[in-house]
Task: inverse folding
């Protein structure tokens, strides 16, 4: 009998009595002399549980049996090129998170956090059932003491993200089907979509490349000097590649594993002459000889503001 890893409280009976079973490699093996009419009963209760990604216990996902639950953050609205969600990502604060998640009466497969959510409690529903909704499936977790310190950092970070969003001309989420279509991405083999820590991106291997369009105006008006910002995974090493705009190289990048275990951004100055008089430009990433590029998880074009050091 198959025993899923999530079913920790399973019961296995033969003719109403506990079975003498050997559990091995996810299966319960019952060896006995079977008789016609024997009844085998396997009970796999669906229970709430938490899972954490490798390497950290400060991020959790919430599951009900095998189903991932996600917080409903409201209507997604129609897709918009370069769209940025300006809400505050929910976090969970408490010593016993599961004790603070309760079923919603009268609603199937629906739960609600009770005093855990910051900035407010959230409704949880199965991930697969949430269409055209904004959702959160991963949550940063804090104790009450940790949150006292962290909440000011979170507010500062959100304010910085909002300011950056206001200055952004366009945003490209690599490795995601719709953004790649919207930005007319083309890739020369070998180039592949990848997923790290739940985040999608794209790489290019020896002799490969990928390129895509990005807008350089806002409401049809030129934006002035721009910065290109790319997001990478900080554990990548020996990745040597070039970045070009409309065929002109603007950067030579070498990833050296300088920020292990985290995503990080690098900013590149965009020469004004490459965007002057244009509505859009073509961004290209390609590896140096006998090397690889990226992966790159996101690319943003934004205006230079006073004090920008790029």
Result:
């Amino acid at each position: 009998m198959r025993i899923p890893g999530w079913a920790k409280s399973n019961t296995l009976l033969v003719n109403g009595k506990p079975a003498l079973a050997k559990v091995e490699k996810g299966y319960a093996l019952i060896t006995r002399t079977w008789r016609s009419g024997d009844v085998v009963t396997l009970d796999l209760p669906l229970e709430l549980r938490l899972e954490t990604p490798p390497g950290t216990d400060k991020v959790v996902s919430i599951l009900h049996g095998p189903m991932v639950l996600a917080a409903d953050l409201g209507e997604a609205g129609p897709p918009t090129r370069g769209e940025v969600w300006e809400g505050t990502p929910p976090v969970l604060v408490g010593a016993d998170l599961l004790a603070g998640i309760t079923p919603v009466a009268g609603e199937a497969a629906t739960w609600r956090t009770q005093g855990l959510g910051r900035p407010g409690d959230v409704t949880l529903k199965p991930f697969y059932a949430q269409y055209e909704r904004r959702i959160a499936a991963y949550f940063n977790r804090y104790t009450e003491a940790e949150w006292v310190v962290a909440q000011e950092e979170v507010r500062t970070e959100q304010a910085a993200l909002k300011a950056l969003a206001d200055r952004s001309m366009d945003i490209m989420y690599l490795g995601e089907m719709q953004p790649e279509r919207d930005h007319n991405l083309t890739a020369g083999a070998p180039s592949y979509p990848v997923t790290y820590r739940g985040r999608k991106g794209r790489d290019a291997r020896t002799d490969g490349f990928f390129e895509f369009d990005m807008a350089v105006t806002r409401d049809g008006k030129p934006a002035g000097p721009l910065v290109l910002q790319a997001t990478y995974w900080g554990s990548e090493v020996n990745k040597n590649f070039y970045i070009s705009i409309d065929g002109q190289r603007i950067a030579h990048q070498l990833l050296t594993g300088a920020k292990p275990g985290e995503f990080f951004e690098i900013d590149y100055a965009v020469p004004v002459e490459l965007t002057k008089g244009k509505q859009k430009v073509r961004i290209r990433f390609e590896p140096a000889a006998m090397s690889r590029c990226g992966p790159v998880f996101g690319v943003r074009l934004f205006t230079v503001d006073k004090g920008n050091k790029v």
Summary: Residues 168-303 form a domain with the Jelly Rolls fold (CATH 2.60.120.200). The CA atoms of residues 113 and 121 lie 5 Å apart. Helices lie at 144-167, 177-182. The chain has a mean pLDDT of 91.
